[in-house]
Amino acid sequence: MDKVEAAPEDRQREFRVEELAEAAGITTRTLRFYRERKLLQPPRKEGRIAWYGEAHLSRLRMIAELLERGHTLGGIAELIGAGESGRDVADLIGLEAALVAPWSDETAVHLDWDELKAAFGDQLTEENTVESIDQGFITVEDDGITHVSRRLMDATTALVAEGVPLSVVLAASRRTQEHVTAIAEIFTALVREHVLGALSADTPLPPGEAARLTEQILRIRPLARTVTDAQFALAMDRRVHAEYEALLRQRLEHRESD
Predict the structure, then answer these.
(1) Cα separation values, 85 from 94, 145, 199, 239, Å
(2) What b/e string do you get for 54-67 counting C-beta neighbours within 10 Å, with b at 16 or more?
């Protein structure tokens, strides 16, 4: 049977050094530096000519993406060294994205000084402003302030409108911050110790392990919020009932003493 030649479009494209550097948007000097740092897999040699393929171009594009994310070349080398293949490196990148993805979808809000005066009146003191800054909520600008969370700002103004002093709201906010930070530490420790233990080991992750961990993290993340919401609701039920019963007893005692 005659040998069938691969169609030109079926053959993987190959590049010389200069062609690969141009396709990746880098200089040949940078490309050779990556080779020296073992960030790029060895090329195919044909005599004295080095030929690079699509896999090399994909690796260079991945390196550029990681550099844009703030990774160092040393960190990228560790990522590449941890993977047995390009797929494993991509899985590690996916795991990183799942781990550091934002939990908050808060939007900032800007209020000018007239709006703040209308909301807080004479409670817009230097002391309350300093406390808000110290808690990390606001930045002060020439024309007003920017709050990191519209929802928290709306809640603050609503509580003040209901008669709760701004200083009391801020004190409650500080205590709440302390407790929710402790809750966050509980959940991060749980995941670190019982889910991500393999990441702290010196040995590379087995093939496919990063992808499995990513799926696990994506399943666990919403559970943390579910548990926190449920526990808070149950705690509020207990405290409200206890406070109400104490109030009834107090009123009853006053009546009996009259």
Answers:
(1) 14, 50, 18, 55
(2) eebbebbebbeebe
| Inter-residue contact 53 to 15 (CB < 8 Å) | yes
Neighbours of 152 (CB within 10 A): 15
Note the pLDDT of residue 2.
47
Is the Cβ–Cβ distance between 217 and 191 less than 8 Å?
Answer: yes
Q: Which of 133, 15, 149, 39 is nearest to 89 (CA)?
A: 39
Tell me how crowded residue 210 is: count the other CB atoms within 10 A of its CB: 25
**CA–CA dist 173, 154 (Å, integer):** 14
pLDDT tens, position by position, 31-90: 999 998 888 888 999 888 899 998 899 889 888 888 887 888 887 887 777 654 555 677
Judged on CB neighbours under 10 Å (0-12, 13-18, 19+), 30 is middle
Measured between alpha carbons, how far is 182 from 108 in angstroms, rounded to an integer?
24
* Angstrom distance (rounded) from CA 92 to CA 213: 9
Instruction: Report d(CA 53, CA 51) in Å as an integer.
Output: 7
Taking the C-alpha atoms of residue 188 and residue 23, their distance in angstroms, rounded to an integer, is 42
Q: Model's pTM, two decimal places?
A: 0.67
